[in-house]
Every structure is written in C-alpha cells, then in structure tokens.
C-alpha cells in the first residue's frame, strides 16, 4: 500500500512520520510545493520542532518515508491520499476574517482528479467546515479520466509540543465516511498501533463537525477560566485555587483550566470563527453569537494584560524597557501563529515601550515578521509609524538575563520550563527598580520572587 500526503506542515509532517514508523510495510510520501520546507524535512534540522520527532523521522526516513516536491508523481502512485494543506481564515471577499479559505483544498482536489487513475481513497486531514467533503467529492467525480474515489474525513487532534506523544497514544482516532470498505482500510493503518476501541467511526459530516466542536469546546474552557481570572483579580479569589476546586468535579475535569494571557495557536481562533460563519450561513444567529464570545473574551484577556502593565507602571511605559520572556503560543514549540505575545508586544510598542524579546525557539526574523503582520490591515497597509516602532523599539535577546538587563519590567508570555530555573536574584539586581514582573502564565514562584524584592502581578491573583 502506498500513501501520499499533500502538505508537509505541522500536521502532515509529524502524522505521516508516525504512520511510516508504525507501518514499515506502507510507503509514505509527503509532498509540498514549498521546496525549502521539503529540504528541511530531508535535513537534520526539521522545519517543525517537536520533542521526540527527530527520532521518529530518522527511523523511517529513507526506509518507507520520503519527502518530495513531486506532487503529481506521488498522487498518481498512491492508493490513499491525505490532504493536509493549510485552511487559513479568509482575508478577502465574502466571509473575510471568519470563513475558511478553501482555495488550497480545492486546488488539491483538482490536482488529484487530474492525475489519478484507478481507485483512490482521499482523506481530509485538514480541519474543514462541515460539508467540505461534498465539494471535494464533486470535484473528484468530474475528473473525466475514469478514476473513482472514496472520500473520508480523518481530522487530526494532536496538539503542538506533544505531537509525538499524541500520535503515539491518541485519546481517539476519528474516521468519518460513506464507504465501509474505505473506512476499514484506514482503520487497518491506525490499528497497527492504536487499540481498535479507540478508533471511532461516524458519518462524514459528524466527523467534520467534531473537529471544529472539539477545538471550540477546548477554547471555551480557556476563555471561561480567563473570564473568572478577571473576577478573581477584582475580588481576592485565586484563579488557580478556583480551577482546582472546580476541576475535581468529575463532570468538569481538571485539564485545560489554566488561566493565561490568552490562547493562541493556529486552530482555536480560526476554527471558532469558521464555526461562527457556518452557523450564520445556516441562519443560526444565536448559536453564532454564543461561540463568537469565546474569541471576544480571548481578545479581552490580551488587552487586559497590556492595560494592567501600563496602569501598574504608573500609567506610562513610554521609553521603558520591558523584557518579554517567551514568544511562542505555548511551550515546547517554535510556532507563533496567533500567539498572545504578538498582540501584547504590538500594543506595548504602540505605547512607545521598548520590548526586548527572548524565546528559546523563535528566531528574530519570525518575531519581526509576525509583528509586521499584526500591524498590517486587511488591505495590506502598514503605517510608517508602526514600521518605525518595529524597527526601533523591538530587539531580540539570546537569553532572559540579557533581555532583563536594565529592564523596568518582565512579562512572561510562554510557560517554558527553563524560565522557572533562572537566577532571579541576578535578574533583580540587573533591573530598574521597582522591578515589576507580569506573569502571563502563572509560571513563576510568587513567594520566592517577592522575597527577592520583585513586585509580581499574576493572572487571576490580586
Ligand atoms: C446542579 C449541580 O449539578 C449541582 O452540583 C449543584 O449543587 C446544584 O445544581 P441539579 O440542578 O440538581 O444540580 O441538577 P443537574 O443534574 O446538574 O442538572 C441541571 C439541569 O441540566 C437539568 O435540567 C438537566 O436535565 C440539565 N442537563 C444536565 C442537561 O440538559 N444535559 C446534561 O448533560 C446535564
Ligand atoms: C489545539 C488542540 O488542543 C488540538 O487537539 C488540535 O488538534 C489543535 O489545536 P494546539 O493549538 O497545538 O492544539 O495547543 P493547545 O495545547 O490546545 O493550546 C492552545 C492554546 O491554549 C495555547 O496558547 C495554550 O497556551 C492555551 N491554553 C491551553 C491555556 O491558556 N490554558 C489551558 O489550560 C490550555
Ligand atoms: P498545518 O498546521 O495544517 O499542517 P501548515 O501551514 O503548517 O498547516 O502546512 C500546510 C502545508 O501545505 C504548507 O507547507 C503548504 O506549502 C502546503 N500546501 C498548500 N497547498 C498545497 C498544494 N496544492 N500542494 C502541495 N502542498 C501544498
């Protein structure tokens, strides 16, 4: 059996590496239009940082795992084709800012239709609006060269930073489809390492909708606890204590209740906005408004954090140096998509602060590019002032010590473990006084820092 995966990104790369590792008898080819990305997958410096991924790729690459830019060739040879391309939020036209841009999915479907012969199983791996498979099926069936197709939906639930662990021991694998034979073929692939009772099968539409729903529920939990964090700050309750108290109720559960500076990542906001757009499309205005509030709450949390910094620092951060610890949207990843740090840094430099950023995995180029994007409007315009602020008021440091030297404040944006084990006395001595810490992840030991002399402000703690 031969598998081809179109799209060598955060989802396609690791998922296919795991399939290849677990199924030595299956030839897996991952293709992408982006030559640089493919070259990186073929090098020792993979384009995606995930703990344990290097070993998985090394084991299978060259044996039954290939990364290539020969898209047509790989599609033509495959029995099963995964579509794992990006589905960003549309930035133009109808549904701009909400609907998913399905351009890349549609192009893949047309490409598959064009180069295929015989029978193939096409698997939607990318997160898609419900009923996308309908469009995919129609495009495929118009191929005109006699090829036949079954379409399956097999959304990926891995989280970044724990991708290898999640792929190895998923809570469940979800496969939606119409043809039992096609479903069974894909089940057999996963069953090589995942217990059968963890492989759920549903109809196509339930599978497509479950992915959006899972992400919406997860994001909603974060927004819910973040909403409570604001109330904690106002009342003297402690959000970590509240989270522990409610999390022991088995109906609520303890996971995903960590108050933070706001959720980020490529999925949550995009998928909720997509869900909102879908609800509106089906005339369900109240349902759309309900889910949209999860994103509004997240925006509020980020904005609230910046405001707290400014207010606490005597209502001005102008010309003050603020050390930003962490820029990735969470620990153990180099991904910065929708990271709260982007928006907080943007708002701080617009207050004329000087930010000095350190993240162990994020490059200076990526930091500047994301800030530039955050200052650019839908029409692609960026003001001269924002350009100047990004050039002059943003710098990047090699570690937290360098970032904090001479700083008026430290703001923790990402919960990197290494940030907990620093010499805080040295940091304190190198900073301006009073030395403020704004802990956006409730990561640092408050008592220890206060003893040293820091003034610490954490999420959901007064
Ligand atoms: C609730 C809390 O569960 C309990 O911890 C608290 O002390 C008091 O309030 P109660 O109102 O007795 O308890 O009933 P509960 O079982 O929570 O159900 C509340 C309502 O939600 C019911 O109308 C129930 O039918 C409904 N419900 C519950 C659903 O519609 N779906 C569900 O999945 C669960
Ligand atoms: C998410 C889903 O977890 C995953 O199942 C899906 O396949 C893709 O989207 P990911 O975006 O990689 O995964 O990361 P996740 O761990 O879910 O965190 C998302 C954001 O929420 C991060 O910014 C994280 O810091 C934040 N978060 C998460 C909190 O602020 N508090 C929490 O308790 C949990
Ligand atoms: P995800 O997080 O969903 O994996 P990424 O943006 O990381 O998304 O990866 C998607 C990949 O799909 C990108 O590397 C992009 O170049 C690739 N891609 C998009 N369209 C096509 C296409 N028609 N053929 C091949 N690769 C594609």
Tag the structure with descriptive keywords:
8-stranded mixed β-sheet, UDPglc_DH_euk, oxidoreductase, Rossmann fold, UDP-glucose 6-dehydrogenase activity, alpha/beta, 462 residues, binds uridine-5'-diphosphate-xylopyranose, binds adenosine-5'-diphosphate, 6-stranded parallel β-sheet, NAD
Characterize the structure shown:
The protein is of the alpha/beta class. The protein has 2 domains: 2-202, NAD(P)-binding Rossmann-like Domain (Rossmann fold, 3-Layer(aba) Sandwich); 268-458, Rossmann fold, CATH 3.40.50. 45% of the residues lie in helices and 14% in strands. It has an 8-stranded mixed beta sheet, with helices on both faces. The protein has a 6-stranded parallel beta sheet with strand order 11-10-9-12-13-14, with helices on both faces. Helix 1 (12-22) links the parallel strand 1 and strand 2. It is globular. The mean pLDDT is 96. One uridine-5'-diphosphate-xylopyranose binds at residues 156-160, 215, 218, 222, 256-258, 260, 263-265, 267-268, 329-330. One uridine-5'-diphosphate-xylopyranose (UDX) binds at residues 156-160, 215, 218, 222, 256-258, 260, 263-265, 267-268, 329-330. It catalyses: UDP-alpha-D-glucose + 2 NAD(+) + H2O = UDP-alpha-D-glucuronate + 2 NADH + 3 H(+). One of its GO terms (biological process) is UDP-glucuronate biosynthetic process. NAD(+) binds at residues 7-12, 32, 37, 85-89, 126-127, 160, 267-270, 337. GO terms for molecular function: NAD binding; UDP-glucose 6-dehydrogenase activity.
